[in-house]
Design brief:
96 residues, mainly alpha, Serine Threonine Protein Phosphatase 5, Tetratricopeptide repeat, 5 helices, flat
Length: 96
């Protein structure tokens, strides 16, 4: 499959974009945007194409910020991931 076609396909898959951002973080490529931009694109893709139902973009970008000691931004992104998760988990009320 041609690289251009793969690149176009990646723009529709948040987990693929987040993985690409991880790879760019480890070994940057001159022709690609910085890893943080790709992580952000992953989050935007999840919001636009999948009604914000993907957890991974938020955890990936949260981990990115954590590795850079930007803890406030890491926690903010992990909190966004928890919002996504909360849509899948029914609320259980414990009665003591």
């Amino acid at each position: 499959m041609p690289l251009l076609l793969m690149s176009i396909m990646f723009t529709r898959y948040p987990a693929a974009l987040a993985t690409l951002a991880d790879l760019e973080e480890v070994s940057p490529t001159e022709s690609r945007p910085p890893a943080l931009n790709i992580y952000t694109q992953s989050v935007n893709c999840a919001r636009l194409h999948y009604d914000d139902t993907h957890i991974y973009p938020y955890t990936y970008i949260g981990n990115y910020h954590y590795r850079r000691a930007n803890y406030k931004e890491a926690l903010r992104n992990w909190a966004e991931a928890s919002k996504v998760i909360s849509r899948y988990v029914p609320y259980v009320h414990c009665v003591a």
